[in-house]
């Protein structure tokens, strides 16, 4: 586990070789980088709540979790989706590997809870500290 934000969150800046016209053109920026911008938003919300977000990737690089935090005495992996996409294969890999009882996916979808997963709408990620097992 790495004590930093997901490297992709920081990778969209100028040092990534992105042409300035892409940044200034508005719409294409939000189309091409909506995942990165969404992860940045979630990271800011987690830090504002006092969390130290971590990033996890399995050794073979086939699975990653955008953020891992410690909340209410439990480890809480968080998968960020910029749309209503409800697939969370990497999150499921981490939950199964480490026997984690609860995880969070944040997306444009409404709130709902399954056995091992709570979907929190992006607009409500600032309340992630209220999630209990």
Automatic annotation (TrEMBL):
DUF4143 domain: residues covered: 17-82
SUPFAM superfamilies: Restriction endonuclease-like (SSF52980)
Taxonomic superkingdom: Bacteria
InterPro entries, alphabetized: DUF4143, Restrct_endonuc-II-like
Protein's recorded name: ATPase
Source species taxonomy: Bacteria, Bacillati, Actinomycetota, Actinomycetes, Bifidobacteriales
